[in-house]
Amino acid sequence: MIAGSGPRPYGALVVFSYAIGPVLIIFSHACSSLLISTGINLAGLAWLAGWYLLRMLAITAIYHRLLVHRSYRAPRFLLRLGCLLAAAAGQMGPSWWKAQHVEHHRKSDQIGDPHSPRVNGGGWIGFIVAQAGWAFTPAFLPSHLPPDVESDPVLKVIDRLHFLPFLLVCMLSFFLGRAMLLGAFCLSTALLYHGVAAVNSLAHLWGEQPFKTTDNSRNNSLVAHITLGEGWHNTHHAFGYSCRHGLAVVNGKIRRLIDPTYNFIQLLSRLGLATDLKLPSHKQLLAGQNSIRSLKNS
After folding, report:
1. What pLDDT score does 92 carry?
2. Model pTM greater than 0.90?
3. For the CA atoms of the chain, what is the radius of gyration?
4. Are 219 and 255 spatial neighbours (Cβ–Cβ below 8 Å)?
5. Distance from C-alpha of 289 to C-alpha of 287, rounded to nearest angstrom
6. pLDDT value at residue 3
7. Alpha-carbon torsion 125, 131, 132, 136, what sign?
8. Which spans in the chain are helix H?
9. Which of 196, 135, 185 is nearest to 31 (CA)?
10. pLDDT greater than 90 at residue 292
């Protein structure tokens, strides 16, 4: 059962702004087809990969681990710049993103969690709903907006005008490389969308569960590699405050897994741009380990 469309504490203009989000995703998928006629050269591949990595990092390191979970502290200018880049991914603004993600953790794999492949039909239907379908339901509109984000005037503007950074990069792409670079940027956006969505779809269906949680979150290596470390989803649900997701316990020993987002946060720390990095202790990791680890969907 997907969340309904009850009253929300914002007006028609905000609803209109948010409704543009799914349109951008459809536009990105459609414009990716430009590459069929134009082909793509090395410059186009670099444009595609560069924008994928830059915006994925903005989503994982800024939107997710800083804005939502506060797993480290950073200067406000870095938070705002990161949110601007994340908005260019066509995945909405900071208020919307935090509201949706907090709701996912609050109701993970329970009735009312629109991101769950298990409670929204199950099987292929549940997977499709979790991957994309939920964005075209009333659940796409948050039931509330986070006060801490709304109190920052810059973040609030980024949230309401979330579509502008995306459109500006579209125009830049066309100016620099006409249809080929525009198609490359749009394909990058489509791939980015599905990469992020896979965290809540694939990583709730297949993978390992090294830690005890109340949901079906899994550590999925494939998803972790395409999302710069976000696919260690079971670890994240077990230790939501941690700025490092790439941790597991195997046979009583702590294993450190690939986590480029955490490596980026470490770099920020060395540059004096990140402080108070939160990590679970050795004792907490061992205490949280799961006695029965699932390798695939049961």
Report:
1. 97
2. yes
3. 19
4. no
5. 6
6. 45
7. positive
8. 12-31, 34-38, 42-57, 76-87, 94-106, 123-131, 147-150, 153-160, 163-200, 221-226, 233-238, 260-270, 282-287
9. 185
10. no
